[in-house]
């Protein structure tokens, strides 16, 4: 299995691709790396998405609700 490498300078869609690869078990992340990735995606959702807007890449959805809460969902 491949170990995923990502950093905070990557685009949001690239970060979402890493999350999708992890979800589909194509790459490996430690629990700490996975949590950091999800936290980073939520922060990006706060910064980049308007209320009620969502971004979908592969099987990952980044959603900013009309309440302002941001969630990361896998399908």
Keywords:
75 residues, alpha+beta, 3-stranded antiparallel β-sheet, two-stranded parallel sheet, globular
Short description:
The chain is an alpha+beta fold. The protein has helices at residues 12-23, 31-48, and strands spanning 2-3, 27-28, 54-57, 60-64, 70-74. Helix 1 runs antiparallel to helix 2.
Layout: helices, strands, pairs:
Layout: E1 2-3, H1 12-23, E2 27-28, H2 31-48, E3 54-57, E4 60-64, E5 70-74
Parallel strand pairs: 1-2
Antiparallel strand pairs: 3-4, 4-5
Helix pairs in contact: 1-2
Can you tell me about this structure?
α1 (12-23) runs antiparallel to α2. The protein starts with a strand and ends with a strand. The strands form two sheets. A three-stranded antiparallel β-sheet has the order 3-4-5, covered by helices on one side. The chain has a two-stranded parallel sheet with strand order 1-2. Helices cover 40% and strands 24% of the residues. By secondary structure, the protein is α+β, with helices and mostly antiparallel strands. The protein contains two helices and five strands, in the order βαβαβββ. The chain has helices at 12-23, 31-48, and strands at residues 2-3, 27-28, 54-57, 60-64, 70-74.
